[in-house]
TrEMBL record:
This is Extracellular solute-binding protein. PROSITE patterns: PROKAR_LIPOPROTEIN, TAT. It comes from Desertihabitans brevis. Residues 1-25 form the signal peptide. It comes from the Bacteria. The keyword Signal applies. The keyword Cell membrane applies. Keywords: Cell membrane, Lipoprotein, Membrane, Palmitate, Signal.
Length: 445
């Protein structure tokens, strides 16, 4: 079910971000998307783009060389939840801010609730929809409009060490049930197949999404939460058992300092991770040529071949004086071959949102992965709409929800269970919605 703008706005207030933005204009101020559209500028202009991507100005300069009348200047900000969003909210509240901001897909609903983003449908963005991956376009096309341009994403696959699998006499698991047997064989050689960071539940949420979960949705005039569904509990029981049987370590998270130490010592055999993990893997000491990529194990008939972890948009912020030009730059950056190749080469973006082009450097084999053409063999199929859960959608307090769930998951080390943590978190998230003035109820059993 697609959420309409009327649905979203009547489902409650905007929480802390709303308080920040209440000073954007005086009483009776006109919401940005009910004002008259702003026509293109008559003369040269300069756009500003706030993002935590590295060397983004080099990407902008490719555009600037061809479009001197629409210059784009990039400014680095901390990652969204590390201060970047706070900076954007504060700038919006003061009547300023950039023309374009990097906003994660899971955070778009909160920006929309506080009237912080331009509806690009009013500027003709639908004419470009067929250039994008359908699933990613759906992630920004809700509340009756289009509130960001997909910038990148992270389809999941399984990075693994063939030599460690061979030493353990194990096969690469095609299902999560097979994963259990593979993990047991690995433990017999004093190797862990995987790790699970109990303090970061975004990875768990991605696997629940793969299994077919749909944690929040809108029905009528209220949010409906259903975290204790069969798909989510299947994933929780799987990892409860894996932790209890010492098949997986919770001592560290993927790509942390101790993880790199374990991976370099041959004590970690695989990582179920997003496409952008390929660059992080290359920091494993003496890892070149040792790793390969396989499809993500699946959960069964009710699940999907893959899932997404991460993904950002280039969103036009409400105070932009040049939304048409900002949209045109974002479209170029994310769908043209020049833009995509520049984003990969300079900023190391995740998976391209383009329907037809993944990037020149990702078409062939990679030396680090033993010459495997893993992007075209594994990640390209994993990103296709049919491989992804079409019913998953984000909600206004996603990060707070993840924090609540993480608090419960941490109790696993002292005798708790992930299953119990999910049920407890569901109750706490209902309370958090209510405290923010959002109408919510639990799904009927």
């Amino acid at each position: 079910m697609r959420v309409t703008r009327r649905d979203l706005l009547r489902l409650g207030g905007a929480g802390a971000a709303g308080a920040l933005l209440s000073a954007c204009a005086g009483p009776g101020a006109t919401p940005v998307n009910t004002r008259p559209t702003i026509p293109p500028a008559d003369g040269p202009i300069t756009l500003t783009y706030w993002s935590w991507l590295k060397d983004l100005q080099k990407v902008c300069d490719v555009w600037n060389a061809q479009n001197p009348h629409i210059r784009v200047e990039a400014s680095w900000i901390p990652g969204g939840n590390d201060g970047g969003y706070q900076k954007m909210y504060s700038a919006l509240a003061a009547g300023g801010g950039p023309d374009i901001g990097q906003v994660e897909m899971r955070t778009v609903p909160e920006f929309v609730l506080v009237d912080g983003l331009v509806d690009l449908r009013r500027y003709g963005v639908d004419q470009y929809a067929d250039r994008f991956n359908e699933t990613l376009w759906q992630q920004v096309s809700f509340v009756g409009g289009v509130y960001g341009i997909p910038q990148d994403s992270g389809p999941l696959a399984l990075y693994y060490r063939p030599d460690l699998f061979q030493a353990a006499g194990a096969e690469v698991p095609a299902t999560w049930e097979e994963w259990n047997e593979t993990a047991r064989r690995m433990r017999a050689t004093d190797v862990y197949l995987e790790c699970l960071d109990l303090s970061d539940t975004s990875w768990f949420a991605a696997l629940a999404q793969q299994a077919g979960a749909r944690w929040l949705r809108v029905e009528g005039e209220e949010w409906v939460i259903h975290m204790t569904d069969d798909a989510t509990l299947q994933v929780a029981r799987h990892f409860d058992r894996a932790i209890d049987e010492d098949l997986i370590t919770t001592a560290y998270g993927q790509f942390s300092t101790p993880w790199y130490a374990a991976a370099s010592a041959g004590q970690i055999a695989s990582a179920a991770q997003a496409s952008w993990g390929d660059a992080l893997l290359q920091s494993v000491t003496s890892g070149a040529g040792q790793w390969r990529v396989a499809p993500l194990p699946t959960w069964g008939s009710g699940g999907y071949a893959s899932t997404f972890l991460g993904g950002s948009t280039a969103a036009v912020l409400a105070n932009s004086k040049h939304p048409q030009e900002a949209m045109e730059f974002a479209i170029w950056m994310t769908t043209s071959q020049e833009g995509i190749d520049a984003m990969i080469a300079n900023s190391g973006i995740g998976w391209s949102p383009s329907r037809d082009y993944i990037g020149q450097s990702r078409l062939g084999g990679a030396d680090f992965f033993g010459g495997q053409s893993y992007n075209t063999e594994v990640f390209e199929p994993a990103a296709q709409p049919e491989a992804q859960n079409p019913d998953w959608s984000w909600w206004p307090i996603t990060q707070q929800s993840f924090n609540i769930l993480s608090d419960g998951f941490r109790q696993k080390v002292s005798g708790g269970t992930l299953v119990d943590a999910i049920a407890t978190a569901e109750n706490a998230i209902v309370k958090a919605f209510t405290n923010k003035g959002l109408s919510i109820r639990k799904a009927e059993a």
